[in-house]
Amino acid sequence: MATPSESRHGMWSSRWLFILAAAGSAVGLGNIWKFPYIAGDNGGGAFVLIYLVCVAAIGVPIMIGETLMGRYGRESPINSMRKLIAVSNAGSYWSAIGWLGVLAGFFILSYYAVIAGWALNYVQLMARGEMVAITAESAQQVLSDFHASPLQMVFWQTLFMVLTVWIVSGGVSKGIERAVKWFMPLLFILLLILLGYAVTSGGFAQGVDFMIGFDWSKVTVDGWLIAMGQAFFTLSLGMGAIMAYGAYLPSDAKISSTVFMIAGLDTAVAILAGLAIFPIVFANGLEPAQGPGLMFVTVPLAFGQMGAGILFGALFFILVSFAAITSAISLLEPALAYLVEEYNAKRSRVAISLGVICWLLGLGSVFSFNIWSDVHVLGDKTVFDFVDYVSQNIMLPLGGLLIALFVGYALPKELVFEQLGLKEGLAASLWMLSIKVIAPAGVLIVFVKTIYDTVMG
Ligand code: PHE
After folding, report:
1. Pick from 134, 286, 420, 442: CA 20 to 30 A from residue 312's CA?
2. Is 289 left (phi over 0), alpha (psi -120 to 50) or beta?
3. Picking from 28-42, 112-126, 199-213, which range would have the lowest pLDDT averaged per residue?
4. pLDDT tens digit string along 59-81?
5. Ligand 1: which of 234, 237, 391 to mutate, judged by most atoms within 8 Å of the beta carbon?
6. What is the pLDDT of residue 457?
7. Among the listed ranges 356-370, 404-418, 443-457, which one has the minimum average pLDDT value?
8. Which residues of 346-356 are buried (b: 16+ CB within 10 A; e: fewer)?
9. Domain-by-domain residue ranges, the chain?
10. Residue 234 CB–ligand 1 contact under 6 Å
11. Do 97 and 81 form a contact (C-beta atoms < 8 A)?
């Protein structure tokens, strides 16, 4: 079966736009909001190290695999899988990769929009000067008051979903490309400014020490599980987002170097976010292991004390919101592209319907912070904790495992090598080793442990 050179949904204007779009998908709340608090919860340096190992040894090889699958298929993950299964003479059960991805996308976006809504709310809180010269306690109080109001939380969640649906409706070049072209570079600059502030905060040495000083006794099996889940989440792997974006990648672009660049950018943003946030935590006597609220307490605190804090603080949260939007659109794209293909439906109409479903699901996460805070789904998990946990620690690693096995064992080797422009040699062998053995074994071990823990409570 010949592979088409273009996708019917449109194409990235160049390899660079793919890099920006995929980095836009990868860089998001996972880097700026989640990574620092997960690292904080898990002891800092030891965690950061195993996270880097997971990204390099498992994440990057799988990302290469997912991109090449998308580029060969040139359609939504579900239909690309159909083609790949046909060309490989593989069993139809592999189509689970596409379906699982669509489901994971819904789960993630449902709570992702809620947190992104917090960032939107903080844009106006910062801009109105509500955080000027605030103390750590009052910064915490502002967040708790916000969480206590379902109405306010739903308002911002809704606004975020509307923006996401609007951008994704514009299509590959008029919607997604336009958004990432501006917001990604700006995000980087703002992050550097915040880092500059952190350097002068008085807590920098302690912050750096916390991020890189590591202690083997803090490396636990749980730490590996969380680090691996985070590696999948932050690189947008295992749910078809990268496959969907790979479908729009020009045929002459080199996949491996492109993926290295995306993973490098994503890792850099996560580390910079940690280096910007922890010094402020220490300088203000806050706790690093503060959980999901970390970014919404420390960052406003820092900007509240800066000269032009109103301006930079508002800008920072605008950019966090956009980092979140460029990820959110990639969470919708697999399901969206599939429905457009299957029913020849209008992109905007499909986007709205999918947006409404995600929004409804997301109400469960909103209420987890207030009226349903006592409702527990699994052990002591609220609905929000549950969808976060199941998608990040089970669905994405499972999707990644299946992708690695499919690329490693089912796809014809010639197809893979042709897509990658690879010849037999050291690089090819290393990549094959990871995709066939290291990545599946790594995911499997940690995955079995997760299921065991979940079942045993
Ligand atoms: N990578 C995104 C982030 O770090 C989240 C994401 C996960 C996006 C999976 C798409 C697919 O915020």
Report:
1. 286
2. beta
3. 199-213
4. 999 999 999 999 999 999 999 99
5. 234
6. 65
7. 443-457
8. ebbebbbebbe
9. 15-456
10. yes
11. yes
Q: pLDDT band for position 212 (50/70/90)? A: confident
* 392 Cβ below 6 A of ligand 1: no
User: Measuring CA to CA, how many Å separate 37 from each of 288, 293, 373, 395?
Assistant: 7, 8, 21, 21
- Tokens describing residue 312: 């930079």
Transcribe 291-306 into DSSP letters.
GGGHHHHHHHHHHHTS
Q: 3-state DSSP call for residue 382? A: coil
| Residue 30 CA, ligand 1 centroid: distance in Å | 6
Q: Higher model confidence: residue 300 or residue 222?
A: 300
Quote the ligand 1 centre to 371 CA distance (angstroms). 28
Return the pLDDT at 180.
Answer: 85
Q: Is the CB of 26 under 6 A from ligand 1?
A: yes
Contact assessment for residue 415 and residue 408, using Cβ atoms and an 8 Å cutoff: no
30 Cβ inside 6 Å of ligand 1? yes
- Does position 356 have pLDDT exceeding 90, yes or no? yes
C-beta of residue 292 within 8 angstroms of C-beta of residue 101: no
pTM, whole model, 2 decimals?
0.92
Q: How large is the C-alpha radius of gyration of the chain?
A: 21
**Of 236, 271, 394, which is best to mutate to test ligand 1, by the most ligand atoms within 8 angstroms of its C-beta?**
236
Ligand 1, atom nearest to 33 Cα = 12
In the CATH hierarchy, which fold is given to the domain comprising 15-456?
A: Amino acid/polyamine transporter I (1.20.1740)
Which of 277, 326, 296 shows the shortest CA–CA distance to 123?
Answer: 296
| Ligand 1 centroid from CA 437, angstroms | 25
Whether 290 lines ligand 1, by a CB cut-off of 6 Å, is no
